[in-house]
Amino acid sequence: MKMLLQISWRNVWRHPARSGVLLGAIIAGLWAGIVVSGWTNGLIDQRINRVIQEDLTHIQIHHPEFRTEREPGMIINNIEEIESFLESDERVVGYTFRTKADGIIQSPLTSSGVQITGVLTDKERETTTFHENLVLGDYLHNEIRNPILMGRGLAEKLNVEIGNRVVLSFQDLDNQFTSGSFNIVGLYYTGQPSFDEFKVYVRAEDLSNLISEEQIYHEVAIKLHNADMSNQVASELNENHTDILAETWTELSPELRYMTGSGDSYSFYVMVVIMFALAFGILNTMLMSIFERMRELGMLMAIGMGRSKIFIMIMTESVILTITGAVAGMLLAYGTINFFSENGFDLSAVGGDTLKEWGYDAIVYPKVSSEEYIMIAVLVIFTALIAAIYPAIKALRINPGEAVRE
Amino acid sequence: MYVKLAWRNIWRNKRRTWITVSSIMFAVVCALFIESLERGAHNQLINNMTEYHTGHIQVQDSRYEDEPSLDNSMVYTDDLNLQIREIDPRISNIIPRIETFMLAAGDEQSRPAMVLGIDLDAENNLNELESRLTAGRFFEPGDGTVVMGKGLADRLHLAVADSLILLGQGRYGMTASGIYEISGIIDHPLREFNNQIVYISIPDAQWLFSMEDRVTNILITPEALRYNDEISENLKSELSENELKILTWQEMMPELIEALEFDRMSTRVFMGILYVVIGFGIFGTILTMTLERLREFGILLSVGMYRWKLAIVVFIETLFISVLGILTGFGLGMMVLGYFYFNPIQLSGDMLELVEEMGFEAVMPVAIAPDIFLWQGSVIFFIATVICLYPSFKIATLNILNASRS
């Protein structure tokens, strides 16, 4: 076996140019595949983080049925209890309470359906970065009665601007219809029309006053130090408190879950197609090298080398080639990813500003998990074996008598 | 003479030729498949958005885009329908709609609702709306009943045969209110719609909003997506004098265009990687072929063949091989794409659930478009031709003595 290995190794390097080309293909393919996957992961992470930081946060608490029914009466009753729990928990960076209502917004011109969020201005700013989306005017402040923030898209649709008044109508706790007039103090822009045209922000106390006699909250938004703790903290919250449901960001947003899912399958497909292309390259090159060595292989058989040994020799050649390339390619990719995941890959020099239009930052931090490296390594070995089988079988079929005489 | 020589040369060693042809053929199939899959996904997304949301082309009153209000509605009669139909024979559907936001109320709960006045037959032609019914039936025009989204019905605790109250504003500030029997419940694939949609027949809507013979927009669909631009141009030149505005889906959903553009960019990066891997594969076979024939070249040169003549013959040989590879690639590609066109890839597991939750069909369709063939064919032909310069270059610098002795 040791000898076979040695022979295979030498066979591989008998044609340095040819083996070099194949190695080049494997290295380039793997490197590029891993870097692109890492880059995609980085972009997706960035997007997810942005949504979490901006508004969603890691965990939200609601009345168990609030998210499906959205009735104004489905409030969180034990708010002090939850507050003291969050206050004493070290994993929590910040939290805020929100009052919610679904209603209709009316301008002198037209009306539209909106989701109204009442926020605690100070706590909200400590917990989320939503105020950074403000493009015009000010954040909700105390100088004007009933201030409201809306998306630029909605303002255009309603044909209103800062300083104008809009009327919000919604249900109160007794299911009676109530409305209040609000003054536009600022416009925000997130780049997502479903958000900008659909969500407006007011102060929690203003909204609460219209809905109920006392201050009520429908939602607690909690930001953690580390997103990986979300599941743990959420289940602790659910165990220790009754009549509430704490859910993590993956449960709250199917869109984000879809994004993570599609990112994973994207990297998988990228690797599979690259492997497919590589397999074909390996197959063709090995096949050619077999045909070229017909005489030599025939001679080996004629002097008594067993067919199984020939088969193993050919297989080993492919595997040696592939693994050498794979190790080099993966090391190179590992280095690249590590370097850029620390320093960030700054695309602003090569038109990275267009990324901003799509809601991404120009600096991307690529990321590849160890599972992905393992998946790739398995794929590579698998590919090499598959690609080597056909040429090895071809070699077995050689008739030593004819091959030697050729 | 050269051509004949080259043609005979490539068939002298059939096996070698076929291996090289197959590596190019494979490259073509791979590239076609990826590109067609991407195009298919984009077309699917565009269809989903246009069929359930905006339509491919919309005709509106010229002020409606800036101020989407019932005040800016347009007169729609059978005459206008006929006039539009005569403008372009490739128009397949004309779908009038009245769109506004109102308050929908049951016995206790009330919610904002998107009220859509529709012509059921026209909607069915667009997206088989009626097949989404989960209970009851659809209304007859003017029979005073409505059909509502399941999400909204659940939130209002309403079922078929219950009464729904609609409250809002009609044309020019007229109060619009009415009580309607629910004739059916629909499970709308887009979640946002499912939670807020109420369908009503156009005659009922016109009466409710005091807007006789008027609608807010007319959706127009072409027989095929590729006619869209021409149809909209024709509509623009024929209808613009009537104070009407024609919008295409690109104008109505710029954010979708941006998202597609971003997706296309990542596919382009991926294609780049694929080209490199494929290029290495082709180079591997060409290199092996060249090495195998060095002795032959050496002898030819030493018996007096001019280097440049030999180089031309070999270059023509490789051209033949490239063209053959691309043509067979088109053939095989057609078969592969044809198969997946009629048997699209089904999503499974978590992704299936998510995609269905977002209201899309859980398949990955492929698109078959001539321009993809043309473009990918030329790119790979270019790559192959550049690689195929290598043997000619080798001949130009060949050491005759060493080569003929090897």
Structure, explained:
The complex is a heterodimer of chains A (406) and B (406). Chain A has 16 helices and 12 strands. Chain A is of the alpha+beta class and 406 residues long. In chain A, helix 1 crosses helix 13. Chain A starts with a helix and ends with a helix. In chain A, 43% of the residues are buried. Chain B is α+β, with helices and mostly antiparallel strands. Chain B is 57% helix and 20% strand. In chain B, a hairpin with a 5-residue loop joins strand 7 and strand 8. In chain B, helix 2 runs antiparallel to helix 10 and helix 2 runs antiparallel to helix 13.
Strand content of chain B: 15-25%
| Largest sheet composition of chain B | 6 strands, mixed, barrel
- Residues in helix, % of chain A: 55-70%
C-alpha-based Rg of chain A, rounded: 31 Å
Strands in their spatial order, largest beta sheet of chain A: 2-3-8-5-7-6
Q: Strand pairing plus helix content of chain A: what structural class?
A: alpha+beta
- Specify the number of helices of chain A: 16
Number of helices of chain B: 14
> What's the helix-strand series of chain B?
HHEEHEEHEEHEEHEHEEHEHHHEHEHH
Broad shape of chain B = elongated
Q: From the structure provided, what is the oligomeric state, counting identical versus distinct chains?
A: heterodimer
Q: Gap between N and C termini of chain B, in Å? A: 29 Å
Radius of gyration of chain B: 31 Å
- Span from first to last CA of chain A? 30 Å
Which residues of chain A form runs of ≥5 with pLDDT under 50?
Answer: none
Strand pairing plus helix content of chain B: what structural class? alpha+beta
